[in-house]
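Hi team,

As requested, here is the filled-out complex form for the adenosine-5'-triphosphate run. I kept the field names the same as last time so the parser does not choke. Let me know if anything looks off before we queue the next batch.

— J.
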Amino acid sequence: MVAQINKSFGNHHVLRDVSLAVSKGEFFTLLGPSGCGKTTLLRLIAGLELPDSGSIFLGGQDVTTVPANKRQVNTVFQSYALFPHLNVLENIAFGLKARKVDPVTIKHKVDRMLETLRLSDLSKRFPSQISGGQKQRVALARALVNEPNVLLLDEPMSALDPHLRTQVQAELLELHRQIDTTFIMVTHDQGEAMFMGGHLAVMRDGQMVQMGTPREVYSRPKNKFVAEFLWGANILLATRDGDRMMTTLGPLKTDDQVSWSQGHLAIRPELIVLEDELARPKDNLVRAKVIQAIYRGASVELLLDPGPVKVVTSPRFNPQPGETVSLFIPSADLVALEGQAA
Ligand code: ATP
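And here is what came back:
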């Protein structure tokens, strides 16, 4: 839907050759650190900005130069931007009234939205008289009542406290399940992007770094940035010696194809196995000393030397600082990251 987009503000090149394919009806998440260009990309899809080059397609049609109000796209902004002088019902009906839809149809559509988003009892209240989560539902209803093909959500949960956020995330997913609309959500919150499922794209400095399902991106990060940005994997500097990778942990084998002579390997802390959890394997067995052990209830987090390597394991284990443990690093989970190390 987005093909080789470039966008600059002055001499600041904000988006570089960005391409993105989102399937109809999908929940797609754009994830990246602050300032990487996520909102700009959303604004281009909405038609609120024009690209310097590249094309935008919606439903197979090139809409690159089609004005925002002629695209079947609605946006829910970070601030919700509700009209303070209109009540909930009037806020939701606003777009349909502006388009001079007949009053009977407006009533029917608005009532349905109030019901879907559980707002019927609040329809006469003003934005100042409802909670943050309720405001967010009104903003969603106001966008969805226009029956857009694509709903754009710019950090829709950022104004909510952590507890409410979890609840609203689940509600948003449920809403998406009920309707046949493509959702594209921007977030800088890794947990939120993983939770929403569907596909996600990781952006950095105006470029797409990796796209895939949360499982693909988390378990097979393409490079150091993705491996670290999605909850810090262990990154090991390695020198290739035939099929063995020489690392600070000793020689390790990976199932991946390795293209460099010196580069980086990544292993998730929870995929390292404490040796007595398994029958003793031959390869990829490492002896390490516990520096720190943090009991987290559902898991135990170990910081180990050499490395330092982080391991997350079952709370059945209770190793103490100073103790030596054996680790097994499954070759299938040891990811060879792109790029030759300097
Ligand atoms: P955040 O998560 O903080 O909202 P973001 O990834 O959404 O960040 P954008 O808002 O797209 O990032 O901004 C990307 C870059 O473009 C930033 O450096 C920003 O300052 C710049 N930028 C965005 N809009 C404009 C504009 N209208 N004029 C000049 N620079 C802009």
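Two things worth flagging: The pocket of adenosine-5'-triphosphate is lined by residues 9, 12, 14, 32, 34-40, 188 (CB under 6 Å). The chain has a mean pLDDT of 90.

Thanks,
J.
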